[in-house]
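> forwarded from #structure-qc
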């Protein structure tokens, strides 16, 4: 386990790492998740093994610190991720981000292009105010104190199912709520606009069962390779791990 300070108070973002060839691949989890749980099996596949791999837990999640005075916006998470990569002496990395982690990865690539040579984002939030079916909208519908102390956190855990609940229990409730609110608020420019304006190799993975990706044609016209993954829902790396790993391994 390695760590880096991400704020003036000395709070630490932490990650686990496997050695291998450069450039590194950096795996970033979604809201209420943890990177090793969602991505270690992907990094270990034959087509991806042998490369340096970092599994970063964003602030408030997994093994990272969870300060009560941190904002947990997408920009905040991206700065913490940058601190981890700077400490790890990573440059020109391939960033693989799922859901909220994909949004964070986009912000990182836009703000710190020196750190990123390729983006693979899976079911990432590209626009503010996602549909009410999104997990973030249900969490953000609570007032913060009602979520943290008024039973909202427990009610959400009961609704999300055992897989997500397993890692959500490891996430600080206040950090979870603020991260959801930050995801709903989005960024300026939007994550979609940032993704379209980047010049690095960009891949967007959409589970076939999630429906058509809004604005797919415009994304494709900007150079984003949009891939619909068969037999997959939101958690593409679980639902169709072979296809997920193949797209991470593919370079254009």
């Amino acid at each position: 386990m390695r760590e880096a300070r991400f704020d003036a108070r000395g709070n630490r973002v932490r990650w686990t790492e496997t050695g291998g060839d450069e450039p590194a691949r950096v795996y970033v989890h979604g809201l209420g998740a943890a990177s090793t749980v969602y991505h270690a099996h992907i990094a270990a596949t034959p087509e991806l093994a042998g490369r340096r791999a970092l599994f970063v837990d964003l602030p408030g999640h997994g093994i990272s610190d969870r300060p009560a005075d941190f904002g947990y916006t997408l920009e905040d998470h991206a700065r913490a991720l940058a601190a981890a990569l700077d400490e790890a002496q990573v440059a020109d990395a391939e960033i693989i981000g799922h859901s909220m982690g994909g949004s964070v990865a986009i912000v990182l690539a836009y703000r710190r292009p020196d750190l990123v040579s390729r983006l693979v984002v899976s079911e990432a939030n590209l626009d503010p105010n996602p549909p009410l079916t999104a997990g973030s909208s249900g969490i953000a519908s609570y007032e913060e104190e009602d979520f943290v102390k008024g039973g909202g956190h427990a009610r959400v855990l009961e609704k999300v199912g055992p897989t997500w609940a397993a890692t959500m229990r490891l996430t600080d409730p206040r950090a979870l709520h603020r991260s959801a609110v930050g995801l709903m608020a989005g960024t300026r420019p939007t994550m979609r606009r940032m993704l379209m304006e980047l010049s690095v190799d960009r891949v967007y993975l959409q589970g076939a069962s999630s429906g058509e990706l809004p604005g797919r044609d415009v994304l494709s016209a900007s150079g984003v390779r949009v891939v619909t993954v068969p037999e997959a829902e939101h958690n593409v790396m679980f639902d169709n791990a072979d296809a997920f790993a193949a797209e991470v391994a593919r370079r254009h």
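QC bot note: The mean pLDDT is 96. Residues 74-87 form the longest helix (14 residues).
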